[in-house]
What does this fold into?
Amino acid sequence: MIKTSTQNELIQYVYNELADDAREQLETALTHDDELADNCSDLLLLQRLLDGAAKSPSQRTINNILNYSKSLSLQS
It folds into this structure.
């Protein structure tokens, strides 16, 4: 099991938020630690899946919001 600080560093690495020196150290560690490299690979896959996830509400949700809004304007 990897340390929480390393998990946080991996997340920062995946999102290109890690400082240059820390990035270089982590990349060196990735070449020597298979478990760390596997964890990094998993995070990269999850990032791609999350980026491809739906980012807009369904039409049903939009219709519910519009109907609710209309019902409020009728009550005024």
In short: The chain has a mean pLDDT of 89.
